[in-house]
Amino acid sequence: DTGVSQDPRHKITKRGQNVTFRCDPISEHNRLYWYRQTLGQGPEFLTYFQNEAQLEKSRLLSDRFSAERPKGSFSTLEIQRTEQGDSAMYLCASSTQVDTIYFGEGSWLTVV
Amino acid sequence: GENVEQHPSTLSVQEGDSAVIKCTYSDSASNYFPWYKQELGKRPQLIIDIRSNVGEKKDQRIAVTLNKTAKHFSLHITETQPEDSAVYFCGRRWGNMLTFGGGTRLMVKP
């Protein structure tokens, strides 16, 4: 499968712990996006990379969230000191220079 | 200017009927408007999109219309089938960001 892949697919963590999600985009895609989706809501934009540069970051994103794309290929999203409100699905998406973005299957986070 | 409003939030139709979902936006800079379908527990998948230089686009039973003056665009599904049941999201590009509406849960009753 040459689509966007995310790992892990599911994560249950205790409040206060740190979690990290990984995204591998479609190989020729230079643009990478992270979104958060809660039940019954649309995907909410978190951040955007073009190659290794993080060009956009939502002002809704707290300082506990950090994302990297060190070599312009895979990306990681880390959440520090998780809170119950962080429980959501974290979606990664990628695209080329054109507009269409392709989503991964998402990483479900449950904070207990 | 980031938000896009989507209506209705739920829509129930009889199999064979048409379904229409509408989205509105506020800024004039948006130039790309996709629609995604998301089945339960699965990734959102692009079903159709339209760019601002076009007023309408059709793909079999699915069509999208765009009214740039009024700043709204709509998804039309004709001859609905049970497998069309899903959540549909409209989106629009605003700068480097693609932002989404809150979604419409479409239920097609057999």
In short:
The complex is a heterodimer of chains A (112) and B (110). Chain A is an all-beta fold and 112 residues long.
Q: Give the number of helices of chain A.
A: 0
Order of helices and strands of chain A: EEEEEEEEEEE
Q: How much β-strand is present in the residues of chain A? A: over 45%
Radius of gyration of chain A: 13 Å
How far apart the termini of chain A lie comes to 33 Å
Report the principal-axis shape of chain A. globular
Uncertain segments of chain A? none
Main pleated-sheet profile of chain B:
6 strands, mixed
| β-strand amount of chain B | over 45%
Residue-averaged pLDDT of chain B, rounded?
93
Main attributes?
heterodimer, A: 112 residues, mainly beta, 7-stranded mixed sheet, 4-stranded antiparallel sheet, 0% helix, globular, B: 110 residues, 6-stranded mixed sheet, 5-stranded antiparallel sheet, 11 strands
Structure explained in plain terms:
- The complex is a heterodimer of chains A (112) and B (110).
- With 112 residues, chain A is mainly beta.
- Chain A has strands spanning 5-7, 10-13, 19-24, 31-37, 44-50, 53-57, 65-68, 75-79, 88-95, 102-103, 107-111.
- Chain A has no helices and 11 strands.
- By secondary structure, chain B is an all-beta fold.
- Chain B has no helices and 11 strands.
- In chain B, the strands form 2 sheets. In chain B, strands 2, 4, 5, 9, 10 and 11 form a 6-stranded mixed beta sheet that branches. Chain B has a 5-stranded antiparallel beta sheet with strand order 1-3-8-7-6, with no helix packed on it.
- In chain B, β4 and β5 form a beta hairpin.
- Chain B is globular, with a radius of gyration of 13 Å.
How does the SSE layout of this entry go?
The complex is a heterodimer of chains A (112) and B (110).
Chain A: E1 5-7, E2 10-13, E3 19-24, E4 31-37, E5 44-50, E6 53-57, E7 65-68, E8 75-79, E9 88-95, E10 102-103, E11 107-111
Parallel strand pairs in A: 2-11
Antiparallel strand pairs in A: 1-3, 3-8, 4-5, 4-9, 5-6, 7-8, 9-10, 9-11
Chain B: E1 4-7, E2 10-14, E3 19-25, E4 32-38, E5 45-51, E6 56-59, E7 62-67, E8 72-77, E9 86-94, E10 97-100, E11 104-109
